[in-house]
């Protein structure tokens, strides 16, 4: 069965702090894709990144970085020098042939960045 | 280029009433999905259209939910009669024919919040 666990329900940090959002996934499939989405207060889901199961290279995009580790089935997301505009709910998601190519979402982590 | 648009943004109805949510995907996107987030839990798949055909409706909770996609363009999701547990945010998403795996993105709308009293 496929499952995505985001154990952190809510995180609160002060602006400029670094913060890591955890994501642990389960799948029997050897080919799968992992995603992160951001849901700002406006409500829409904004695509941040996709990684496939064959590419374990970490990725950095500005203040955002992602650490994919198959050995621990984790795909963690770090925001460096957080800003108030980073406040949102962040969802980790998984897709694979086991899931019939449906996105399986975690329950989300609400990040509050205080000024 | 317009993104995925959903209407209404918020609907408040009483138990037993009917509500119809509408989704306009990005023009040219053959894949259209409905997802739902209930009570702050995870976002769950409801169904998937490829053009006007239902590819997968395994996530539809029960027969009170009816989805259609006229002519392979916009889609509607009707809840009749609505129950309290139907409250949540309903998201629509679209992607090109190559799909999420092929293109890497699934474009989501802003969601329709449904409150059933």
Instruction: Decide which structural class fits the backbone of chain A.
Output: mainly beta
Mean pLDDT of chain A: 92
**Percentage of residues in helical conformation of chain A:** under 10%
Strand element count of chain B:
11
- The oligomeric state is heterodimer
Distance between the termini of chain A: 41 Å
Q: With helices defined by DSSP (H or I, 4 residues minimum), what is the helix count of chain A? A: 0
What can be said about the biggest beta sheet of chain B?
7 strands, mixed
* Low-confidence runs of at least 5 consecutive residues of chain B: none
How many whole angstroms does the radius of gyration of chain B measure?
13 Å
Main attributes?
heterodimer; A: 115 residues; mainly beta; 6-stranded mixed beta sheet; 4-stranded antiparallel beta sheet; B: 117 residues; 7-stranded mixed beta sheet; 1 helix; 4% helix; 49% strand
Structure commentary:
The complex is a heterodimer of chains A (115) and B (117). Chain A is mainly β. Chain A is 0% helix and 53% strand. Chain A is globular, with a radius of gyration of 14 Å. The model of chain A has no long low-confidence stretch (mean pLDDT 92). Chain B is mainly beta and 117 residues long. Chain B is 4% helix and 49% strand. Chain B contains 1 helix and 11 strands; from the N terminus they run E-E-E-E-E-E-E-E-E-H-E-E. In chain B, strands 2, 4, 5, 6, 9, 10 and 11 form a 7-stranded mixed sheet that branches. Chain B has a 4-stranded antiparallel sheet with strand order 1-3-8-7, with no helix packed on it. In chain B, strand 4 (31-37) and strand 5 form a beta hairpin. Chain B starts with a strand and ends with a strand. The chains are: A mainly beta (115), B mainly beta (117). Chain A binds chain B through residues 4, 33, 35, 37, 42-47, 50, 91, 93, 95, 100-108, and chain B through 3, 9, 33, 35, 40-45, 48, 56, 58-59, 89, 91, 93, 99-101, 104-111, 113.
């Amino acid at each position: 069965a496929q499952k995505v666990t985001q154990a952190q329900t809510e995180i609160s940090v002060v602006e400029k702090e670094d913060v890591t959002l955890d994501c642990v996934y389960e799948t029997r499939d050897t080919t799968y894709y992992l995603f992160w989405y951001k849901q700002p207060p406006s409500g829409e889901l904004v695509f941040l990144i996709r990684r496939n199961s064959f590419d374990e290279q970490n990725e950095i995009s500005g203040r955002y970085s992602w650490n994919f580790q198959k050995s621990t089935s984790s795909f963690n997301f770090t925001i460096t020098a957080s800003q108030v505009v980073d406040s949102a709910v962040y969802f980790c998601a998984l897709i694979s042939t086991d899931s019939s190519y449906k996105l399986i979402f975690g329950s989300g982590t609400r990040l509050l960045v205080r000024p | 280029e317009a993104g995925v648009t959903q209407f209404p943004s918020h609907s408040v109805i009483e138990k037993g009433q009917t509500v119809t949510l509408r989704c306009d995907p990005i023009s040219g996107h053959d894949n259209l999905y409905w997802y739902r987030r209930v009570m702050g839990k995870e976002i769950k798949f409801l169904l998937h259209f490829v053009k006007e055909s239902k590819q997968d409706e395994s996530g539809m909770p029960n027969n009170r939910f009816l989805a259609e996609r006229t002519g392979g363009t916009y889609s509607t999701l009707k809840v009749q009669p609505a129950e309290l547990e139907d409250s949540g945010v309903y998201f629509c998403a679209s992607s090109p024919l190559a799909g999420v795996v092929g293109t890497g993105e699934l474009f989501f709308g802003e969601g329709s919040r449904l409150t059933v009293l």
